[in-house]
Amino acid sequence: MTFGLAELAARVGGEVVGDGGLRLTGVAALDDATPEQVSFFSNRKYRVAFQASRAGAVVVEPGEDVPAGRTVVRVANAYLAFAKIATLFHPPPEALPEIAPGAEIHPTARVHPGAQVMPLASVGAGAEVGARTILFPGVHVGPEARVGEDCILYSNVVIRERCRLGNRVILQPGVVIGADGFGFAFDPEGEGQGPRHYKFPQVGIVVVEDDVEIGANTCVDRATTDSTRIGDGTKLDNLVQIGHNVNIGRHCIIVAQVGVAGSTELEDYVTLGGQAGIAGHLRLEKGAVVAAQSGVSRGVKSKEVVSGYPAIAHGAWKRVSVLVQRLPQLFQKTRELEDRVEALERQSAHEEVR
Amino acid sequence: MTFGLAELAARVGGEVVGDGGLRLTGVAALDDATPEQVSFFSNRKYRVAFQASRAGAVVVEPGEDVPAGRTVVRVANAYLAFAKIATLFHPPPEALPEIAPGAEIHPTARVHPGAQVMPLASVGAGAEVGARTILFPGVHVGPEARVGEDCILYSNVVIRERCRLGNRVILQPGVVIGADGFGFAFDPEGEGQGPRHYKFPQVGIVVVEDDVEIGANTCVDRATTDSTRIGDGTKLDNLVQIGHNVNIGRHCIIVAQVGVAGSTELEDYVTLGGQAGIAGHLRLEKGAVVAAQSGVSRGVKSKEVVSGYPAIAHGAWKRVSVLVQRLPQLFQKTRELEDRVEALERQSAHEEVR
Amino acid sequence: MTFGLAELAARVGGEVVGDGGLRLTGVAALDDATPEQVSFFSNRKYRVAFQASRAGAVVVEPGEDVPAGRTVVRVANAYLAFAKIATLFHPPPEALPEIAPGAEIHPTARVHPGAQVMPLASVGAGAEVGARTILFPGVHVGPEARVGEDCILYSNVVIRERCRLGNRVILQPGVVIGADGFGFAFDPEGEGQGPRHYKFPQVGIVVVEDDVEIGANTCVDRATTDSTRIGDGTKLDNLVQIGHNVNIGRHCIIVAQVGVAGSTELEDYVTLGGQAGIAGHLRLEKGAVVAAQSGVSRGVKSKEVVSGYPAIAHGAWKRVSVLVQRLPQLFQKTRELEDRVEALERQSAHEEVR
Question: Which chains touch C (3 or more CB pairs under 8 A)?
């Protein structure tokens, strides 16, 4: 697939400065791009790469200073425009309507004739799979589960019974939707066998709304009795843990290895940095931001940015973490002050006497 | 399935206050429950929800204040009783004895005729699967492995060769039992090819005892030469890492994303909070508790509660983490003290002179 | 398989002190070894176990003090020699050349006749699998992917389209190679539907070089446009997250649950401790070491050892973490100093007056 530069610019509402007649074959980073490829520049850090790049054309923002002879597409949001151009060259995979012979579809399942089920995938009793959805080898959709239209479920995704996915949902390999939440009642007698944990049956479901993407090997637990929810357009990275009864709003960003404990609520547009941990039964309000590796044990206000463990306001945390590193000097200074005060006290006693 | 309230109360040793003749169809949270459902109240935080709930009946503890007209079941351990009632409505899945045509059972494997092996699951050479155990699609039981009775292995669980599961074990989707432990000997010569890591063969096994539950995508590594062990009744949440040669006692609770490094021992009833990390070759004594996200690099005494990184006694850590946040004031105060001492010193020098 | 002790010693360049004619059947830890087994001693902590061990022979280093009557193999690097002896008793699994009837091989895939593909594994269109490589049940190799020679891919490993593995690569169960990187452009208009995240297509690949081992359920994301790379001989533990465009050098060690964010570069021989997090776009130079649970947000110099969050030089971090625990005393001392200074000031004012 090739595109003319003028067409690409038009598709993203940009303006060509230079040779609009160029034919392009793909996208690449500034360092790697060939004269047949489009690249992208917005981070000043990469100015040298921008100047040296062999790219046929580069997407830049309107104010950008451009070397003579360099063909660019000027557009307001360069990275977004570049993403759209990349999508033109690399459209998402399309379903080839077929149920492969090696797939296992329960006779009571309803797989849309426009869906594609690859070999070694299975769809359980009473489950539904929508039009143009692709199930890769090793995907298992449990009984009475529902997968919407235009979804991509990569290899070894598991959707347990009764869980529901909206449309245009992308699940990377190994995602687990609807494992039992971690809920046990402590039983001090254990029916005569000693103290132990009694499993609370987890009979709710997971609801994944439209346009959600979930990263490899991430787990979203089913609710105890109602639903764990991932709202429209939210993106989860790899190896994330979402506990039972968690309610995640729309268009949130949750980076790899984050854990969100049970019953916590994230309103819309919340961002959680990598490896952050959020305790249970909290509310993170709209647009709250949690820095990577933080441990959040209280609610976070709208647009508040928090860091650290326990997480506090990001500005306060930054000040404190600089000061912590100056503790050796502070201890030293305090020792010196003690000596000086003692000297003064001695002298003062002496004067008293005198 | 429906139950009369009197019967439910009898099953959990509780007492009905109100209409014992009610017929109930299920359980739900206070907010969601209908007049045909049982709910549960013990956390004072939810008193308003308790008063407003439409639930037909609510399980409460003996001392609880109950609004007039509200039917309740009074019982000593309300949450445990509610869990037992929920289990009556939602009994665990039962095996439908069958080896599905799409399953792959090695001719030398011994699958009990009362077990259920679903399509696309496999059982390797010489492996055993006990009565009433269910293997979901995509489960792979390796050669010479042994799975006990009444187990549930959800989709895409992997049991590697020779590992052993007891009875009533529940493995959520994607659990890996018996991957090689992470053991390498540094080889400074690398047989002439330069320094590199030489793999130490991991030839031990994993032993998972009775009544253990393990969460989605959790990994328990096989021992180097003997066994990694998960004791009776212990519950592991999702995405947990258990290193080789780790020995976990009975009835422990290990929350999501915890990592336990090699050869560490947890005695019975140990609790590890989410994302905690435990270094190798340590002993955590009976009933030890590690707070979420802590990093433990020394042994923990029986019933001791530790927090932080490095983890210290929880009370000390709480005091310290408050003080850390007051460091800006402490630095400020120390600067002021310096000024004041300097002023005193100047004055004192002046007086000396005088 | 049994070996004479003299032969074992010869194979590792060691010297028998004692009975070289012993026949041995395997390896074990000091505590568990029988008179037919070889064991190993180098950590002084285990001297009592060494003395008490029933092992037929023990591998020790040249300077070691050995009790009378104990047969040993003396060799320069005892642990490495023991690892090599263990490998003699437990050679890695060997491919039994066969494509199992229950495997799904695309007609255009090229599987070497010396490879073994087990039931319920699949190889996609145009993919290649090299000689003596083993694909366990549930492995899915995507279209145009390439797996080298002598590899072992355990159950439920997923290799997505076009990714490439070198020779002698070992992937533990559930590894995901080539999931989409986590890349989204924020779209403030969302084509009239409100602010949302626009997926940047991830069209690069992952390149895993020779002799790499990757732990269970670890994820290595494909690059945005070029390659994510894992260099020769590098070892990754379980549940690790490697972001898109990361470039990892040769012979690195990355312990369980580490996360490395996008575009970061690790030079050769870097070590990352368990649960450490490395921010994106950083460079960790040759031989850098990051302690467990640290959070690295700046580059790390060659052979530098860093700890903490944010990570600083390990020595500084150790001093600081001791001082943090003494904060209650420091606050107390500062309060006392204030009182003493105030007393001196009062006295001094009094003297002035006098």
Answer: A, B
- Residue C35's CB is within 10 A of a number of other CB atoms, namely 13
Q: In this structure, are C184 and C105 located in the same domain?
A: yes
Pair (A163, A308) in one structural domain: yes
Note the pLDDT tens digit of each residue in A193-228: 999 999 999 999 999 999 999 999 999 999 999 999
Nearest to B328 among A158, A319, A348 (CB): A319
The answer on C351 and C308 residing in a single domain is no
| Three-state secondary-structure class, residue C318 | helix
DSSP character for A300? Answer: B
Condensed to tens digits (0 to 9), the pLDDT of residues A52-79 reads 999 999 999 998 999 999 999 999 999 9
Has the ipTM of the complex gone over 0.85? yes
Instruction: Specify whether B235 is located in the same domain as B153.
Output: yes
A188 part of contact set with chain B, CB < 8 Å: yes
CATH for A117: 2.160.10.10
Q: What is the pLDDT of residue C278?
A: 98
- With beta carbons under 8 A apart, name residues in chain C contacting A86: 200-201, 203, 225
Residues B134 and B273 in one domain: yes
Pairwise CB contact (< 8 Å): C219 & A233: no
Residue type, B282: L
- The model carries a pTM of 0.97
Which segments of A169-255 are extended strands (E)? 170-171, 176-179, 184-187, 196-199, 205-208, 213-214, 219-221, 227-230, 235-236, 241-242, 247-248, 253-254
Does any CB of chain A come closer than 8 Å to the CB of residue C196?
Answer: yes
Nearest-angstrom CA–CA distance, A234 and C262: 20
In whole angstroms, how far apart are CA A8 and each of A34, A77, A338?
A: 17, 14, 72
Nearest CA in chain B to C93: B201
A244 is catalytic: yes
CA distances from B267 to A59, A194, B230, B234, B239 (A): 60, 16, 11, 11, 21
Domain boundary among A89, A110, A145: A89
* Model pLDDT, residue A237: 98
Across A139-143, A294-298, B200-204, C63-67, least confident range: C63-67
Q: What is the average pLDDT across C181-185? A: 98
**What range defines the domain where residue C184 resides?**
98-315
**What percent of chain A lies above the pLDDT cut of 90?**
94
Query: Helices C327-353 and B327-353: crossing angle, nearest 10°?
Result: 30
Asked which of A27, A56, A89 is the last residue of a domain, the reply is A89
The residues pairing with B187 across neighbouring beta strands, listed in sequence order, are B196
pLDDT for B353 equals: 66
CATH number for the domain harbouring residue B45: 3.40.1390.10
Q: How many CB atoms lie within 10 A of CB B3?
A: 18
Instruction: Give the per-residue pLDDT at B351.
Output: 76
pLDDT attached to residue C272: 98
Cβ-based contacts of B140 with chain C (< 8 Å): 120, 136-138, 155-156
**Do residues B77 and B205 both lie within one domain?**
no
Give chain A positions within 8 Å (CB) of C351.
351
Using 50, 70 and 90 to split pLDDT, how confident is the model at C220? very high
* Average pLDDT for runs of 10 along chain B of length 354: 96 96 95 95 90 96 91 96 97 96 97 98 98 98 98 98 98 98 96 94 97 98 96 98 98 98 98 98 98 98 96 96 96 96 90 68
Do residues C57 and C145 share a domain? no
Domains held by chain C: number = 3
State yes or no: pLDDT of A354 exceeds 70.
no
The residue with tokens 């005198």 is A354
Q: CA nearest B220: which of A252, A53, C216? A: C216
Question: A314 in contact with C at a CB cutoff of 8 Å?
Answer: no
Say which of C90, C112, C140, C244 is annotated catalytic.
C244
* CA-based nearest residue to C135, from C154, C163, C150: C154
Co-location of C256 and C326 in the same domain: no
